[in-house]
Specification:
single chain; 191 residues; mainly alpha; three-stranded mixed beta sheet; two-stranded antiparallel ribbon; 4 helices; 5 strands
Length: 191
């Protein structure tokens, strides 16, 4: 006889006892379950009331502080403009336009309550100029490092050629001492 779940007298009694226990337990935990369901429904309602912070900065679509402020206000939020400081200059800002918004807090697309404050950081021409200077300095340093590496490589190559030439000369003199004629190629032609 095959054994299976719910088969035989034990399965029937176990099922009946489980159903009876469940029927006795439901009235005891029903208020807790209802509270959890109400809380989830309340949180879901809150999520529906939130709005997204508009896109105020995106690569290829620069917005000025005035345009970004209008966009934030039209979304039902408040806006405060903040200048980027000289300390925050960075080569990545070298191609920005004056008064371009570069960051917001809270960040764009974040869900917030209607009427929340959004801080918009924008860039001034002085910061753009400093960012360009930093970029130029960074590129100059890269070029200097590249030139140093090229000079070092040329120096190493010359040392190898000189060492190879000395080795060939040494071998040539050994062969000549033994009385054999040699036609050795120039080391620079070999390398």
């Amino acid at each position: 006889m095959a054994k299976g779940k719910g088969k035989g007298i034990g399965g029937i009694i176990g099922g009946a006892l489980g159903a009876a226990a469940l029927n006795a337990l439901v009235p005891a935990i029903e208020p807790t379950i209802n509270k959890v369901v109400d809380k989830v429904a309340e949180e879901f309602e809150k999520q529906n009331d939130l709005i997204s912070v508009p896109d105020t900065y995106a690569k290829g679509f620069p917005l000025t502080i005035n345009q970004a402020t209008d966009l934030v206000l039209s979304a039902g939020l408040k806006a405060t403009a903040c200048e980027l400081t000289m300390k925050e200059a960075d080569p990545k800002y070298k191609d920005c336009i004056e008064s371009q918004v570069v960051i917001s807090n809270p960040p764009q697309r974040k869900k917030v309550k209607p009427g929340s404050m959004v801080f918009l950081k924008y860039i001034t021409q002085d910061v753009i100029d400093e960012s360009q200077r930093l970029f130029d300095e960074q590129e100059k340093q890269k070029a200097e490092i590249k030139a140093e590496k090229a000079a070092k490589f040329a120096e190493q190559k010359k040392a190898v050629i000189d060492a190879g030439g000395k080795t060939v000369s040494g071998i040539k003199s050994l062969i000549e001492k033994r009385g054999q004629k040699t036609d050795t190629p120039n080391i620079e032609d070999v390398l």
